[in-house]
Amino acid sequence: MKIIAIVNQKGGVGKTVTAVNLAVGLAREGKKVIAIDFDAQGSLTVSLGYSEQDKMDTTVSTVLEKIIEDKPIAPDEGILHHEEGIDLLPANIELSGLEVTLVNTMSRECVLREYLKTISNSYDIAVIDCSPSLGMLTINALTAADEVIIPVQAQYLSIKGMEQLFRTIGRVRKQLNPNLQIGGVLITMADLRTNYTKDIISLLHNSYGRKIKIFDSVIPLSVRAAEMSAEGKSIYLHDPNGKVSIAYKGFIKEVG
User: Which CATH number fits the domain that encloses residue 242?
Assistant: First the structure.
């Protein structure tokens, strides 16, 4: 099972929209995919149509607590089956409490990795939607992942914040997960009509293009992407012929 973490400590850069459309897009290509919500706000869970996430009895927190306490986990425990052909391990506010618990846990960075080993034979790909921070949950995701995809909004401050993320990835690679790769940077929410956006994209390529893959697909700014989250559907169902859908289809081909 290949594990892809969608990471950026800055909020509002299109992480969850990217996680939904990456997971569903890969499933449409015939892959068996599980999406894992690793944000206490439960954005991925809500975006896939499960709006009452705080009433859920079993979530990612439940199974990780069982890993910490060395209790058995049922093969399908907590996993929801979405109509678009992916599975989801949901999250809710309980994940905030788990982050506090992890601080005093042995091998605290490896708890998610241990859980993913238990389901690795059931899926081709896991897509982890991380919280907008570089705390213990995100470190767990990076320790478990084979690859990181970094969505970046076409704005100067978004690019400025990437240095800190690269340092964190470097530390995780050195100390916890030597196989961790940066799959690439995905430019999101880009208003391609403006010179400002074009300048930011050029700055990104000039600053990082030699060291890190920057996906050719650029996700345009569109109200359709915001509507998608409220509908509980991927962009492929919500607006199949729209520019965001076409851009994500191109991105899926690049991810492979």
Answer: 3.40.50.300
